[in-house]
Write a sequence for this structure.
């Protein structure tokens, strides 16, 4: 491969990763149980529960309960200390210790080690954000959803099969086999590629912007948002009849949500939006928001246009906002499931929310990715480089070619 | 196919068509009697919460301008600047591709007091509108431009913050009614701090990065931009909006624009997404596709072939036979 294309590719990969990853360095926060009980939940001057302010989750809790904590809803204090110690050692490890052979595809794709994907937050009390089903796991997919997932996975593997990732049986090729370049490289994907910011389902192709993940396209923000690896800061402002939330999320992929508190019915069903259509109302002290009308271009854990959310926002006390969301899609999961997230009030001064820098205005990563792919094609055509089908220029299964969430690098909360 | 590119041009054209040639009525400074009908918060301040939108042509050009046949034009058969024909990017859109005239929103003599050097840049900007305007790239529109784009925006007036949510690219601004330190770096949308002067919300905006324009005519500013906005209720459903613009790097003196903001009175008014990042991917990266969709790119230059088929019933002989 030419030096130029490798250079372009590294810039592209680095820029894209920088665009989606933020290392959250929160000041140490007191453990909830140590804190003096906060004051009562305030009300607005017009008498509604006051949810206003900047919020985030101060504690790290995995979405799904790790298998080894099955049937255990809460960690003990000893377990939390142990997990924090393990996560700290990942963060403290020098990047050099985990680098692959310099200049290889693995090294370039895995320019970051696991440390950058571990937040600096303490582990929380719960073993999973999912509170229902009681096992803390996402319910099984329906056969229909499994079929969609398999179709995309088969397509991904077809685009990987001529690469070293499959030749060397790396984790990114799981389920596939090594072979000659697939004719499917010329095909459109079976479904709109709505891969999230972390690129877990990205395809090894960069024919145009649509081949890239929503994160790389600066459109990674989705509902529901639990902060993920990059963390988030919802900023809430409310007036009688309306509640607005600016989601500072995905490092510059933030967006503004407006929730009408109205008895009016949802938008006509043929109107479809990335963040759906929200309708809120008060039930006692809880704001209940019903969200429908999602576009088929969005993807939350495999659910697309049939995603239905019922969110419940409750201010428990001056410092705490509880966010519970029931997630339902009969075409995707065998049953509804519920996630509960405790949000902690942030200081207006310490964690000020800006509407930028925004990913899109500086998205030279996309330019570099596409330009790099074209340079490789030209080099191949001129007999100066390998067949692009054998390269991982666009990522062999997200970052899986570079590192896997296994072994000593592994985050104990997600492996 | 090229239809996609044409579709993106149609978006621009529709924006023009929606705001048809409405002559701007300069409203007098709202008086006390009018403000008496304004909506009020529980603490007695004017309540600006709601969905709002301007009804003017300021997004095309803040200054008074004649209507013209296209958002982009070129010289036709006459060698005079006042007889232009639509240029290729909007040619197929016919009357939907033109620009409505306006008496302008710049107060006083209607002039924008550019320095000599800045006036030359403004002229160049206008000549290279398609190449340079950040709006076309779906960049954050900045203030004041976001306030008079042809899309609705929603004001949510909280107790110590006023949030403004814009349909265009789902962006927002927060007006801090309390003291909050400015961002550590310059921004597209600026840093807004508000205070009440009687019934008027006065907002001081600073911290700009100088990458925004005021309109599609190439009017621009630098990172030294300082705005003072004044929002005053006229009635329950109209706000008098004025902005004093100061930027010593670009203008020789402060100048002012003003216009009414109108409440969207439809009972089902709500912001819908205009997530234009997706819409502009072809515009931004089409030349880097493996297989080009728009015929044709030459390097980083788009050269568009336009398709407009004359429907059979429009042909002269069909009309004559009827």
């Amino acid at each position: 491969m030419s030096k130029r294309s490798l250079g372009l590719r590294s810039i592209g990969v680095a820029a894209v990763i920088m665009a989606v990853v933020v290392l959250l360095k929160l000041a140490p926060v007191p453990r909830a149980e140590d804190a003096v009980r906060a004051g009562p939940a305030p009300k607005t001057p017009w008498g509604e529960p006051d949810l206003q302010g900047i919020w985030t989750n101060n504690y790290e809790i995995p979405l799904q309960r790790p298998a080894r904590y099955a049937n255990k809803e809460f960690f003990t204090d000893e377990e939390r200390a142990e997990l924090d110690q393990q996560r700290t050692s990942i963060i403290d490890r020098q990047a050099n210790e985990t680098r692959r052979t310099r200049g290889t595809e693995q090294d370039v794709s895995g320019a970051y080690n696991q440390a950058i994907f571990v937040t600096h937050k303490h582990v929380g009390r719960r073993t999973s954000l999912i509170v229902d089903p009681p096992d803390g796991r996402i319910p099984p997919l329906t056969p229909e959803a499994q079929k969609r997932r398999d179709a995309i996975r088969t397509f991904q593997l077809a685009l990987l099969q001529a690469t070293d990732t499959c030749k060397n049986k790396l984790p990114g090729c799981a389920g596939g086999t090594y072979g000659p370049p697939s004719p499917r490289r010329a095909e459109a994907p079976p479904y709109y590629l709505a891969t999230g910011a972390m690129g877990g389902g990205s395809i090894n192709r960069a024919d145009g912007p649509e081949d890239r993940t929503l994160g790389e396209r600066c459109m990674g923000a989705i509902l529901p948002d639990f902060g993920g690896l990059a963390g988030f800061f919802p900023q809430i402002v409310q007036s009688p009849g309306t509640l607005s939330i600016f989601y500072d999320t995905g490092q510059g992929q933030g967006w503004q949500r407006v929730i009408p508190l109205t008895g009016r019915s949802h938008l006509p069903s043929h109107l479809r939006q990335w963040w759906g259509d929200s309708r809120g109302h008060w039930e006692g002290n809880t704001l209940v928001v019903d969200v429908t009308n999602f576009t088929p271009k969005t993807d939350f854990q495999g659910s697309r246009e049939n995603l239905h959310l019922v969110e419940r926002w409750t201010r428990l006390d001056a410092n705490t906002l509880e966010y519970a969301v029931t997630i339902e899609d009969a075409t995707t999961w065998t049953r509804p499931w519920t996630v509960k997230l405790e949000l902690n009030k942030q200081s207006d001064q310490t964690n000020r929310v800006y509407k930028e820098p925004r990913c899109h205005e500086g998205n030279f990563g996309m330019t570099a990715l596409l330009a790099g792919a074209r340079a490789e094609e030209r080099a191949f055509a001129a007999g100066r480089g390998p067949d692009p089908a054998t390269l991982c220029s666009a990522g062999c299964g997200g970052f899986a070619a570079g590192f896997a969430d296994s072994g000593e690098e592994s985050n104990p909360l997600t492996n | 196919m090229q239809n996609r590119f044409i579709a993106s041009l149609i978006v621009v054209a529709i924006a023009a068509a929606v705001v048809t040639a409405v002559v701007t009525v300069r409203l007098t400074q709202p008086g006390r009697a009018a403000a008496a009908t304004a909506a009020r918060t529980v603490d007695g301040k004017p309540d600006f919460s709601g969905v709002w939108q301007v009804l003017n042509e300021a997004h095309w050009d803040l200054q008074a301008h004649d209507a013209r046949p296209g958002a982009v034009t070129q010289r036709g058969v006459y060698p005079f600047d006042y007889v232009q024909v639509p240029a290729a990017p909007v040619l197929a859109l016919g009357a939907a591709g033109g620009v409505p005239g306006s008496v302008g929103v710049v107060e006083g003599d209607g002039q924008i007091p550019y320095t000599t050097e800045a006036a030359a840049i403004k002229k160049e900007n206008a000549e290279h509108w398609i190449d340079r305007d950040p709006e076309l790239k779906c960049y954050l529109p900045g203030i004041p431009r976001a306030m008079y784009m042809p899309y609705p925006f929603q004001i949510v007036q909280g107790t110590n913050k006023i949030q403004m949510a814009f349909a265009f690219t789902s962006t927002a601004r927060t007006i801090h009614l309390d003291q909050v330190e400015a961002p550590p770096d310059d921004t597209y949308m600026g840093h807004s701090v508000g205070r009440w002067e009687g019934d008027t919300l006065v907002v001081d905006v600073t911290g700009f990065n100088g990458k925004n324009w005021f309109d599609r005519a190439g009017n621009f500013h630098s990172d030294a931009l300082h705005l003072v906005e004044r929002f005053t209720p006229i009635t329950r459903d109209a706000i008098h909006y004025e902005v004093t613009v100061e930027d010593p790097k670009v203008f020789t003196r402060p100048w002012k624009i003003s216009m009414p903001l109108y409440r969207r009175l439809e009972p089902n008014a709500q912001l819908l997404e205009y997530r234009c990042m997706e819409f502009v991917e072809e515009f931004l990266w089409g030349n880097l596709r493996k297989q080009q969709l728009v015929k044709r790119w030459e390097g980083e230059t788009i050269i568009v072939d336009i398709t407009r088929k004359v429907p059979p019933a429009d042909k002269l002989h069909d009309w004559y036979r009827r």
User: Anything to note?
Assistant: Chain B touches chain A through 50 residues (CB under 8 Å). The longest strand of chain B covers residues 226-235.
